[in-house]
Write a sequence for this structure.
């Protein structure tokens, strides 16, 4: 478990303290995939780099499995760096070394000297990330996705219990992003290691994370399960991320809705309710007519969800809404405020 208690971080710029993180309290459970989302400059890199002490907090306590890592001596720090692997947006591979040598590098640093032992471990790691056929290539001969796979193999070399991902898919196209995220999900599942990732893309969070925290101007403004935060965002910054992910322009939406007659509601279905034929039967039973203004069915990690914005007219609208709510459909107005 990773715990941040009242963490502050300032940088000294031109002799003055510039705050980057304020009063961060955060608890990341062992074995979960935890995402931190924020816009540029929000403090994401600073926050993730605290966890392996690439940056030191200015104040507060930072515990890993109960130990305050800011108190570690040089030996303790070396051990920490082996326990906490990291991958980077621009991969940070050694360009003059082959794929196999890049992956072997942390093993050598950790003092493994047996060539046979290193070769076995490197082969295992390259198989794990699907690069067995590329061991003797140089980074320049690889695609972006392959480079990140080398980064992942290298980060896993010393069997860490935590993997930090610093915008690991931001330089990749959508398809490659999906395959790298799938690999991270597999690693989390099969090796049981904790993954902490930072990103500015809600879609990355939606695909792999169990829980998420939203960082805005150095403060945590919202956190919770991805489904709760993504489907029912409370803070303006979170709402903006969700709308961005859905390609919705909030102002356009408002002016579109001004021209719609009827009562506009936003329904959120989760899990099995997503596929149930609820809407038709409730509409028939209550005499309500509806038109669909927008809709989407997707998945949050493994769980299906649907969101529909409807205009309701005629019939007994209140009865329809309460029957939907009784069937575990979240019923809200268009701003997300719960109605039932
Ligand atoms: N080494 C540094 N020295 C001085 N100021 C820094 C340093 N690193 C970050 N900052 C400042 O701290 C704030 C947070 O930066 P940080 O890089 O953590 O944000 P971020 O959310 O990761 O942004 P980005 O996505 O653009 O990397 C910014 O105002 C930044 O200018």
């Amino acid at each position: 478990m990773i715990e941040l208690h009242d963490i502050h971080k300032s940088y000294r710029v031109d002799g003055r303290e510039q705050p980057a993180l304020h009063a961060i309290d955060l608890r990341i459970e062992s074995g979960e995939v935890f995402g931190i989302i924020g816009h540029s400059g929000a403090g994401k890199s600073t926050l993730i780099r605290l966890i392996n002490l690439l940056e030191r907090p200015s104040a507060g306590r930072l515990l890993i499995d109960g130990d305050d890592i800011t108190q570690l001596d040089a030996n303790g720090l070396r051990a920490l760096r082996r326990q906490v692997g990291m991958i980077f947006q621009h991969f940070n591979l050694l360009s003059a070394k082959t794929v196999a040598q890049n992956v072997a590098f942390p093993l050598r640093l950790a003092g493994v000297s047996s060539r046979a032992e290193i070769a076995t471990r490197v082969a295992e790691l390259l198989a794990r990330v699907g690069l067995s056929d590329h061991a003797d290539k140089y980074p320049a001969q690889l695609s972006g996705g392959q480079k990140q796979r080398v980064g992942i193999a290298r980060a896993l070399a010393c069997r860490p219990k935590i993997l930090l991902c610093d915008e690991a898919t931001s330089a990749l196209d959508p398809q490659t992003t999906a395959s790298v995220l799938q690999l991270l999900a597999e690693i989390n599942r099969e090796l049981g290691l904790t993954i902490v990732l930072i990103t500015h893309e809600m879609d990355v969070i939606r695909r792999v994370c169990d829980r998420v925290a939203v960082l805005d101007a150095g403060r945590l403004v919202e956190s919770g399960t991805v489904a709760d935060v993504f489907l029912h965002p409370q803070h303006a910054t979170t709402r903006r991320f969700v709308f961005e992910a859905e390609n919705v322009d909030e102002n356009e939406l408002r002016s579109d809705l001004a021209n719609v007659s009827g009562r506009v509601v936003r329904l959120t279905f989760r899990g099995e309710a997503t596929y149930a034929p609820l809407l038709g039967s409730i509409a028939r039973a209550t005499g309500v007519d509806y038109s669909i203004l927008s809709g989407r069915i997707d998945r949050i990690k493994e769980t299906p969800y649907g969101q529909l914005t409807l205009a309701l007219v005629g019939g007994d609208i209140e009865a329809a809404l309460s029957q939907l709510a009784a069937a575990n459909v979240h019923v809200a107005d268009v701003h997300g405020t719960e109605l039932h």
